[in-house]
UniProtKB/TrEMBL annotation:
Pathway(s) where this gene product acts: Isoprenoid biosynthesis; isopentenyl diphosphate biosynthesis via mevalonate pathway; isopentenyl diphosphate from (R)-mevalonate: step 1/3
Domain GHMP kinase C-terminal as annotated: residue spans: 291-345
Main enzyme class: transferase
GO biological process: isopentenyl diphosphate biosynthetic process, mevalonate pathway
The protein's name: Phosphomevalonate kinase
One GO cellular component term noted in the UniProt record for this chain: cytosol
E.C. designation(s): 2.7.4.2
PANTHER family: MEVALONATE KINASE
Length: 358
C-alpha cells in the first residue's frame, strides 16, 4: 500500500506492579490516548517525530539492516523497523520499497511536553511494527504483534515486564503475566523471528477482562515524571541481598491478583475495590522494606483524597510520580474527587478504556 496510518493506545496499570517483573500477574488497561504512526511510500527512507519536530532523519538498507545516516535518539524505532522487516523476510516478503515513517503522540502533556506515564515507548514499538506490517500487506494478530514488540525491545536490551506492549497490542483491559526470560533469551539466538513468534511462550498469560459497568475509573496526574527503568534498577539494587522479602511480596501479590481477576470475571465491584486496596498495602509494605520511594507526597494526597470520598485508590505503574488511579462505586462522587485533586494541584485526566483489538 502507498500509505498506512495506525493509532495505538497508551496504558495504565491497575494492579500487580513490580511483582509482574518477576513473573507475577498484573491487570493493565489500554487507555484512549494514542500514539500515531504513518507509513508512506517514498523514494528514500525517512523518519520524523513530533517529539523533535526540527529533526528529519534519513535511513537506508544495507545487507538487510536498517541504517541511519546520522546519530539519533530513536534506537527503539530503528530496532522495531529491523525486527519487522526480518519477520516479513521470514514469511517470504522482501521489503524493498522505501518509506517515510512519521510519529505523533498524545501520550504527554501538550503544554509542557512532560510524559503522563502512559507507556510511550511501548506504544511506539507496537505502532511501528503494526504500521510497517500493514504497509507490506501483513495484518498481525494482537498476540503476534505483542511477540514481535517483545523481541524488538529485548534485542535492544530493555528490561521490564513488557506489560505495556501487551496492553497496547490487545487494547481493552487485560490480565497479564510475562513470558519466562530464561526461556526467551536463548531462543532469540537460535530461532528465526517467524519461528520464535509461532511458538508457545512459557508462562505468558494475556486474558481479556471486562470492567464492571457500575464502577467508575478515575485517573489523576501528579505533574511529575517517573522513570520506570530507573525505579526498576533501584529495586534490583535494593533487593539483591533481600531475596526472601522480594519473593514473599511476589507470592502475596500473586494471590491478591488471582482474587482480583476472579472478581473481574464475576463482575464483583466490591471485591475488586477490596483487592485494589490490598494491592496498595502490599506495594507500600514492600517499598518500605526495600527503601523504594513509591508514593510521593502528591501521590499520597491523590490517594487519600479519593479514599475520603469512598473510592479505592493506589499508584499506577512504577510510582515515584506520574499517575494514580481511583475506582469508585458511586459515580456521583467523581466530580467531588476530581475537584479535590485540582485544589491539591493534581490534574484529572479524561481517560477511558481503549476498545480491544480483534
Amino acid at each position: 500500500m502507498s500509505k498506512i496510518q495506525v493509532k495505538i493506545p497508551g496504558k495504565l496499570y491497575l494492579a500487580g506492579e513490580y511483582a509482574v517483573v518477576d513473573g507475577g500477574l498484573a491487570i493493565i488497561a489500554a487507555v484512549n490516548q494514542y500514539l500515531q504512526v504513518t507509513v508512506e511510500a517514498t523514494q528514500t527512507g525517512q523518519l520524523h517525530s513530533d517529539q523533535q519536530a526540527d529533526l528529519n532523519l534519513s535511513w537506508y538498507r544495507k545487507d538487510h539492516n536498517i541504517v541511519f545516516d546520522q546519530e539519533h535518539p530513536y534506537s527503539l524505532v530503528q530496532v522495531a523497523m529491523q525486527v519487522t522487516e526480518e519477520y516479513l523476510r521470514d514469511l517470504g516478503e522482501f521489503p524493498s520499497t522505501y518509506y517515510r515513517l512519521a510519529i505523533t503522540s498524545e501520550l504527554d502533556d501538550s503544554g509542557s511536553g512532560q510524559k503522563y506515564g502512559l507507556g510511550s515507548s511501548g506504544a511506539v514499538t507496537v505502532a511501528v511494527i503494526k504500521a510497517i506490517s500493514l504497509f507490506y500487506g501483513q495484518s498481525l494478530s494482537p498476540l503476534v504483534l505483542y511477540k514481535l514488540s517483545v523481541l524488538a525491545q529485548t534485542k535492544l536490551g530493555l528490561s521490564g515486564s513488557f506489560g505495556d506492549l501487551a496492553a497496547s497490542s490487545f487494547g481493552g483491559l487485560i490480565a497479564y503475566q510475562r513470558p519466562l526470560p530464561a526461556w526467551l533469551l536463548p531462543k532469540i539466538a537460535e530461532q528465526t523471528v517467524a519461528d520464535l513468534v509461532a511458538l508457545d511462550w512459557p508462562n505468558l498469560v494475556i486474558e481479556r477482562l471486562l470492567f464492571p459497568e457500575n464502577l467508575q475509573f478515575l485517573v489523576g496526574w501528579t505533574r511529575s515524571v517517573a522513570s520506570t527503568e530507573g525505579l526498576l534498577d533501584e529495586v534490583a539494587r535494593n533487593t539483591f541481598h533481600k531475596k526472601q522479602i522480594r519473593q514473599d511480596f511476589v507470592t502475596a501479590s500473586q494471590a491478591c491478583l488471582e482474587r482480583m481477576v476472579q472478581a473481574f470475571q464475576e463482575q464483583n465491584s466490591s471485591a475488586i475495590c477490596q483487592e485494589i486496596r490490598h494491592n496498595r498495602f502490599l506495594l507500600r509494605s514492600y517499598a518500605e522494606q526495600v527503601g523504594l520511594h513509591l508514593e510521593t507526597p502528591a501521590l499520597k494526597t491523590l490517594i487519600d483524597l479519593a479514599e475520603e470520598h469512598g473510592a479505592a485508590a493506589k499508584t499506577s505503574g512504577a510510582g515515584g510520580g506520574d499517575c494514580g488511579i481511583a475506582l469508585l462505586k458511586e459515580p456521583f462522587k467523581a466530580a467531588q474527587i476530581q475537584d479535590s485533586w485540582v485544589a491539591a494541584g493534581i490534574l484529572p485526566l479524561d481517560l477511558l478504556f481503549a476498545p480491544p483489538f480483534a
